């Protein structure tokens, strides 16, 4: 059975319901993972998404900020939520689908100053990545099995995941301390970075373009902040990968675009 999964930092799920509807009309997506939903659980648009075919939902939200959701055309089982810091808020939710555990994350952005000594937001981000690493580390004793990890991880890991490696080395999301911690996380279970599995370096790959750009497409100063990883056990099931860059040009867009993969299960 083919399964197409998408991850998308939607930057307010209620505001962008028309964009979600268009995406689902244009693409045969079975499971949609959302970040930055910006809505409390009781006000999450369950009925509206169900009407679009996403009847099965697990959510973890809060009013005005953060928030993650997994919405699916096929049945799923709630697999819980994890906190890695006292001030995390709703940044993780998990579901089990056909024997696979799917983890959806919204890693803290980290503020503007890449110094944990003076910027609590950056310290929180680094601590969050450490917490994720500790959870997946085989030495933790956790039994993880087949897994997919998706979300806005707020780190552009490689030289070709940003418009200018040199210019962004001191900019939050691409500093060496962040990219190092993300790589440590990736190596815990030797996760497959699906984007680079299909489109290896030195191809430039971006999933985010700032709202501050006068013409985002012309300047093309993007970063790859949104990721899909799978455990090695699911590598043979992978069937494709896409970044839907064109969605950034839709009316009232998020600054992130959907990232898709298909697996044969």
UniProtKB/TrEMBL annotation:
Cofactor(s) it depends on:
Mg(2+); Mn(2+)
Q: What is this protein called?
A: Exodeoxyribonuclease III
Q: Which residues form the Endonuclease/exonuclease/phosphatase domain?
A: 6-256
Report which residue ranges the record marks as coiled coil: none
Catalytic residues, chain numbering: 106, 152, 256
Work out whether the entry's keyword set contains Metal-binding.
yes
Cite the Gene3D superfamilies for this sequence. Endonuclease/exonuclease/phosphatase
Residues noted as binding Mg(2+) in the record, renumbered to the chain: 9, 36, 152, 154, 255-256
Superkingdom, natural source: Bacteria
Which residues does this entry assign to the site Transition state stabilizer? 154
Please cite one Gene Ontology biological process associated with this protein: DNA repair
């Amino acid at each position: 059975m083919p399964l197409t999964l998408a991850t998308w930092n939607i930057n307010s799920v209620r505001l962008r319901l028309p964009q979600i509807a268009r995406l689902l009309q244009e693409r045969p997506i079975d499971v949609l993972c959302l970040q930055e939903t910006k809505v409390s659980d009781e006000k999450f648009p369950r009925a509206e998404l169900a009407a679009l075919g996403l009847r099965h939902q697990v959510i973890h939200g809060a009013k005005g900020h953060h928030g993650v959701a997994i919405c699916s055309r096929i049945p799923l089982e709630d697999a819980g939520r994890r906190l890695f810091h006292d001030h995390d808020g709703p940044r993780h939710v998990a579901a089990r689908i056909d024997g696979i555990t799917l983890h959806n994350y919204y890693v803290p952005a980290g503020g503007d100053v890449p110094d944990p000594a003076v910027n609590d937001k950056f310290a929180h981000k680094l601590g969050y990545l450490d917490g994720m690493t500790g959870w997946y580390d085989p030495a933790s004793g956790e039994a993880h099995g087949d897994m997919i990890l998706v979300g806005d991880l707020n780190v552009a890991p490689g030289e070709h995941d940003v418009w200018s490696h040199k210019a962004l080395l001191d900019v939050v999301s691409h500093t060496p301390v962040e990219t190092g911690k993300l790589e440590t996380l990736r190596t815990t279970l030797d996760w497959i970075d699906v984007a680079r599995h299909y489109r290896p370096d030195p191809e430039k790959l971006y999933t985010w373009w700032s709202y501050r750009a006068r013409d985002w497409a012309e300047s093309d100063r993007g970063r790859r902040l949104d990721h899909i990883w799978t455990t090695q056990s699911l590598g043979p099931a992978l069937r494709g990968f896409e970044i839907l860059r064109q969605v950034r040009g839709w009316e009232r867009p998020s600054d992130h675009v959907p990232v898709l993969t298909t697996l044969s299960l």
